[in-house]
Amino acid sequence: MILLFDADSLVFASCCRTKQFPDELPYYTNLSDAINKFDEQFMKIVNDLEESYDIEKIITFNGCRGNFRKLITTNYKANRKKQDLPPLLHKMHQYVKDTYESKFGFGIETDDMVARYWYTLSEQFGRDNVMIISIDKDYKQFPCLMYFNFALLLYSCLNNSYNFLVY
Q: How would you label 17-30 residue by residue, b for 16+ Cβ within 10 Å and e otherwise?
């Protein structure tokens, strides 16, 4: 099995922490805390999948920038609420890029890059040998094996409808 790990959401979540007191920040301020959280969650997902699959390769993706869609229209994702970014977010993206040798690009979103890899690798090795790991619902449009919302789902497209099988 080849795992295509869209790590953007996991990077963001790794910067966040549960507040113990009302006046505490919801984010880590110590980079090593965020790194430890990321590494632990990443490896838990991989270890869980290794119980059911022979993992041959993991390709990690994160931190794409400069989405071309925003150049086409200012309305792209305009309905989203403004949200403060965790102070360690950029350092965490760099950590994942350096440590996990992740793939990233400019002018596209991470899911665009994962989609391209998924298509190429599933054509070469078959759909049953390539799995996307992400919580991004955009991947639901692919007839792919997927670890979504960190629960394994198999999406199959039949007559323009989806059948969801949970394992």
A: beeeeeeeeebbee
